[in-house]
Write a structure and sequence with these properties.
mainly alpha; rod-shaped; single chain
Amino acid sequence: MSPVLIFSGLVLGAALVAPFATANGHRGKRYYGRENRSNQARNQEDRAYRVFLGEQRRDFREFRSMTRDDQQHYFSWSHEHPDHVLFQVERR
């Protein structure tokens, strides 16, 4: 066999194997949705929203079903309560 055929076969094989070799590397990575926010950020936002409702002594309602004034009140509250204060992580 000629060296060109061997080289072409190796390149073709590498091109076919590369997507499968990199597919398992997705674990532990963040996925971004339409809003370009990670799932982790959404989970923290949900937790913060529930803390807000607890402090306001309100029952849970979907955020999108709240009035615009209530949503604005939550946004103001969330800027006064950063995540590092709400969710203190124990460091070892």
